[in-house]
Amino acid sequence: MEFIYYIPAIIVFFLFCFVTVKQGTIGVITIFGKYRRILHPGLNFRIPLIEVIYRRISIQNRSTELGFQAVTLDQANVNFTALVLYSVLNHDEITIKNVAFKFIDEKSFMQSLIRTIEGNVRSFVATKKQSEILTLRNEIVLFVKENLDTILESWGYHLIDLQMNDITFDEEVMRSMAKVVASNNLKAAAENEGQALLITKTKAAEADGNAVRIAAEAERQAAILRGQAVASFREEVAKGMSMAAKEMQQSDLDNSVILFTMWTETLKHVAENGKGNIIFLDGSSESMDRTLKQMMAMQSMHNPFQNDSNLHTHPHHEKHKK
What is the pLDDT of residues 66-75, one digit of tens each? Predict the structure, then answer.
């Protein structure tokens, strides 16, 4: 009967023999302060009061954000804001022992990690000028990861990613850089504007030259055509006058009639197409007789032999001469 009184104590002792480890964590067991073994996620057995869970280590990815300052080769202050993503290297027992016992606590590990990253970044930036920093973001990350991987592996961790989210300079440096960028933009704009103006002027000059050349060529062709037209007109007039003269001779008429007809037709054409111009013409018989004599005199002056032959061949003139 006395054994019944020990049953609750036995149940409590039995319950303390089992411990639960959450998913994503690993428990580290020590016996009297000395490392004994590790507990994996799930239900695990332990010896109560002897085996103690010294620490629960997360094997999930962890991140932290840090900000620090570095100085370039030309003594410019650069402000960095970085994101560090890291995790436990693997689930091996040696790795877990390193994670559990290398640092006294998580705070000491984070301090060492941050200072190591800052030191690597500062050593890299110290060899570069401020004008180069903004273009070397990837190079900075690769340099830090290359130097940090070996150190973190000895601590039982692995650096997954390092992101340089923000790289800024002091206010004075940023203001001067903005002025440099603005001046370069103005210079580029002026150069582009000058090039555009030069192209515009060149194209305009080429267009004017082409227009002048085309106009000159058109004028030359027009002059040629006008000359050909005038020559053709004169040729046709000459042919017409020659035919008219032959017909007049065959009809026993005087050639002065042709001249008089041409004179009157010319006056008619001028009167119809004069567009308001005033032409004074003496329409008396004396004026007509004087005009005929002048035209006959001009014809006689240009071809005296033809006129003499006409006078001898036409009986009208012989009678007139007698």
Answer: 888 888 888 8
